[in-house]
Design a protein that fits this description.
alpha/beta; five-stranded mixed sheet; 34% helix
């Protein structure tokens, strides 16, 4: 049996799923509220593990990540049912990205993870990086970091060890001098996987565009 809840303590957010107005009303009657703010959600309802803005940002808050069946079954039971029976199981993305969602959600509770995972870090994004910049900025900010669009130089990087470059092969002319000075250049995977796994994979080749020859 789950512990009795205080009304309003359950805040539900969805990603990739649209709940009907009727179901939202019914959830409200059971004491759950809808939210669109990832840092406010206690329950994230999704089809599976997806790298949407909402999903990535919500992990920092370590919510329950549930299937839509939790909503439908709770409504039928006229009671918010125990989450453990409806946790998302999605092995394929876990294999692909070499992580376990349950471990990520546990890690997010640690002081140096979650909203502090990228604390104090600044990521310089070069012009040809193929990503939705709004998504990247929001995701990085949700974990305490910042995104800069100004051109990274050796002087900028030298000034602070928490400055990093996110780039791609097409921007080689920008980062080649940086690599020659000993800097590693990362791909957007570094940030996306950091949010998903709650660990920063500085050494993972999947996250690296170029590194100094040892």
């Amino acid at each position: 049996s789950s512990s009795p809840r205080q009304a309003g303590t359950v805040r539900v957010m969805t990603t990739g799923i649209q709940l009907s107005d009727e179901n939202i009303k019914r959830l409200n009657k059971l004491g759950a509220r809808m939210t669109t703010r990832p840092n406010d959600c206690t329950h994230l309802v999704a089809k599976g593990i997806v790298r949407t803005e909402k999903f990535l940002c919500a992990i920092s808050s370590s919510p329950f990540v549930l299937t839509e069946a939790w909503v439908n079954s709770s409504i039928r039971a006229a009671n918010l049912l125990p989450e453990k029976d409806f946790l998302i199981s999605d092995p394929e993305p876990e294999r692909k990205w070499k992580f376990e969602l349950s471990i990520s959600l546990e890690r997010a509770k640690r002081e140096d993870c979650g909203e502090n995972l990228l604390k104090g870090m600044v990521f310089y994004i070069t012009p040809k990086v193929d990503i939705d910049l709004k998504l990247l900025k929001v995701v990085v900010a949700s974990a305490g970091g910042q995104v800069q669009m100004s051109k990274p130089t050796v002087r900028i990087l030298n000034a602070n060890e928490n400055r990093h470059v996110i780039s791609c092969a097409a921007d080689r002319s920008i980062w080649r001098p940086l690599v020659e000075e000993g800097y590693t250049i990362y791909s957007t995977e570094l940030v996306l996987l950091a949010l998903l796994t709650q660990e920063i994979r500085w050494k993972d080749d999947d996250c690296i565009v170029a590194k100094p020859s040892s």
